[in-house]
Amino acid sequence: MKKRSNYHSDSTSVQISPSPETLQSRTILQPRRRIQSAHTAATGSHCPQTGVWASATGVRRPIFEGEIMPPLSNRTARWTLYKAGLPSRALC
């Protein structure tokens, strides 16, 4: 059986083409992007929406749109929108 060459040439340039086996074995990795949703925000970012925000530890705070998302116990936190709109006393 004759081995297939990976080199193809024309009159102006030489091009290298991967074999079909190489193409099948490659895994294409996409860079991981952090998605900023209107329903989540991290400490230090601007609040995307007015409402009551909750941390993973269950702490709830009213935060208004445009405010800086606060830290918890001097540590960064991921906040999730618990209830949109103006907060009421029962939720705080």
What distance lies between the first and last C-alpha atoms, to the nearest angstrom?
76 Å
**What are the segments in which pLDDT stays under 50 over at least 5 consecutive residues?**
none
Report strand order across the widest sheet: 3-6-4-5
The coarse overall form would be elongated
Q: What is the element string, with H for helices and E for strands?
A: EEHEEEE
The total of beta strands comes to 6
Largest beta-sheet details: 4 strands, antiparallel
Quickly count the helices. 1
In what range is the share of β-strand residues?
Answer: 25-35%
Indicate the topology.
Layout: E1 7-9, E2 14-16, H1 20-25, E3 40-42, E4 51-55, E5 60-63, E6 78-84
Antiparallel strand pairs: 1-2, 3-6, 4-5, 4-6
Written overview of the protein:
There is one protein chain. The chain has 92 residues and is mainly beta. Helix content is 7%, strand content 27%. The chain has one helix spanning 20-25; strands at residues 7-9, 14-16, 40-42, 51-55, 60-63, 78-84. It has a four-stranded antiparallel β-sheet with strand order 3-6-4-5, with no helix packed on it. Strands 1-2 form a two-stranded antiparallel sheet. The radius of gyration is 26 Å and the shape is elongated. It starts with 6 loop residues before the first strand and ends in an 8-residue tail after the last strand. 8% of the residues are buried.
